[in-house]
Amino acid sequence: MNNAIYKSKANVIKAIAHPSRLMMIDALAEGEKCVCELQALVKADMSTVSKHLTIMKNAGLVTDRKEGLKVFYRLRLPCVLRLFDCVDEIIFANNG
After folding, report:
1. What is the mean pLDDT of the chain?
2. 10 Å Cβ neighbour count for 38?
3. Integer CA distances (angstroms), 60 to 18, 73, 92, 95, in order
4. CATH 1.10.10.10 applies to domain 3-95
5. pLDDT interval class at 65 (50, 70, 90)
6. Are residues 62 and 28 in contact, defined by beta-carbon separation less than 8 angstroms?
7. Sequence-separated (6 or more) residues with CB below 8 Å from residue 36
8. How high is the pLDDT of residue 1?
9. Where are the domains of the chain?
10. What ranges make up the beta strands (E) of the chain?
């Protein structure tokens, strides 16, 4: 693999690497959510939530759609959840 592929992989991993983003991805695994629901989930101001969502959207993790004044987000590719399963296994193995 060339260096650009590794940079792209690192970009996706960086986009996941924040507790609030992990919580949002977990919530989006259940289905589409409006920004207001994600804001309530992570208990942060709207600008912070918007920054997190922009990072995840730019990395290709989520996609959005507008409905009137509301913006709804969903996972672009749910395969990211397999990574969550792997991380859970690592945590369990280290603490088990």
Report:
1. 95
2. 25
3. 16, 12, 28, 32
4. yes
5. very high
6. yes
7. 70
8. 73
9. 3-95
10. 33-34, 62-67, 70-75
Mean pLDDT value of segment 54-70: 96
Q: Which residues of 52-76 are buried (b: 16+ CB within 10 A; e: fewer)?
A: bbebbeebebbeeeeeeeeebbebb
CA dist 73 and 64 (Å) reads: 4
d(CA 90, CA 79): 18
Which H helix or E strand runs over 8?
helix 3-16
Joined tokens for residue 80: 């990211």
Contact 72, 64 (CB under 8 A): yes
Give me 90's structure tokens.
């690592």
Token pair for residue 66?
């507008």
Take residue 30 and report the two structure tokens written for it.
Answer: 């259940």
